[in-house]
Amino acid sequence: MTDVQHPQPWLNHYPEGIDWSCELTRQPLNDYIDQAAVKFRDGQQ
């Protein structure tokens, strides 16, 4: 059953500081993957 008060219940489970409504740059998925590989090449930041 869907909760009308909270139509997106998964938002309650996001870590603190995650902005669901942030603006994303439109680019191919492989560009995002390449950027993440460079950013996290030595492990988690």
What does this entry show, briefly?
This protein is mostly helical and 45 residues long.
Would you write up a description of this structure?
- It is extended, with a radius of gyration of 15 Å.
- Helix content is 24%, strand content 0%.
- The mean pLDDT is 85.
- The chain is mainly α.
Output the keywords.
45 residues, mainly alpha, 24% helix, 1 helix, extended
Helix content: 10-25%
Can you tell me the overall shape? extended
E-strand count: 0
H/I helix tally: 1
Overall mean pLDDT: 85
User: Approximately how much beta-strand content do the residues carry?
Assistant: under 5%
Cα radius of gyration in angstroms:
15 Å
Succession of helices and strands: H
| Residue runs with pLDDT of under 50 for 5 or more positions | none
- Report, as a whole number of angstroms, the end-to-end distance: 38 Å
Topology of helices and strands:
Blueprint lengths: L28 H11 L6
